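As the work plan foresaw, our protein records have gained a structure token line. A representative record is set out beneath this paragraph:
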Amino acid sequence: MIIIVSSAAGANGNGYGKLLAFDHNGKPLGVFGDDDRIADPRGLAVDRHEGLLFVNSGADRVLALDIDGKVARDTGAIEGLNPGGGNFGPDGRYYIGLRSARTVMAFSPALHAVGEYVLPLAVVPFPRGFAFGHDGRLFLASGVGPNGKGDNEVVAFAAGGFAQPLQLVADPELSPLDLIIAPNGNILVSSEHPFGSPDAVTSIREYDIANGRLVRVFSASGVAQFQRPRGLRLGQDGNLYCVAQDEVVAFDFTAGKCLGPVVRFSRLHGQALIFLL
């Protein structure tokens, strides 16, 4: 198993602006995909049908890489795209969050066609991760942007409609950075509250998918530094992983216990992570 982490650059964090690879023991393997089109990479997702790694590049484009890190597909530069996170939807399309347009766009996995807005422009103040539930609903976290403006909530859109949002989570201690769906169907959100504060409380928060009620809170509890948590991912081992500043931290999802860092790497400034087998 190889762990791929998108390391931010510029305003997103003083990282490397590259995809970085680590083995299952956390040993650095170097840059994955040394191509100039991979700049300040953000969201990551794997097309399990074709084995391609999809990367949202800060160079205003979406790329698909093969197992050797070579660019197999490229949307080309799309002015103003400014993509954030990415996920495959139930229809097989690749969905990305747009930071400037503050909405979600979908692409054919072939990346040869123009993307389609699936939510209205400026649907939330600042998108901070999204995922599709087991019932097809789209759950979108809205947080605070780099300009300090935004809100802290999770909204839900009905399957197939994606028109009218329903506020599902309104937690006064939440400041979301990423969102995934747990094996039990609940919502998991990485949080840094207040966002950007040196004294921020960092956690992963689980919410009931039916009513948005807070179920439990995952804390590092001194086992890891767990500063600036960002991308979440569930591993095949059943553990929950979160990339953060200088580390990737593992949690026992069943027990809710922090297992400590699996990767330690100075200036990592991770945005997203994925596992390649």
User: Anything to note?
Assistant: The chain has a mean pLDDT of 94.
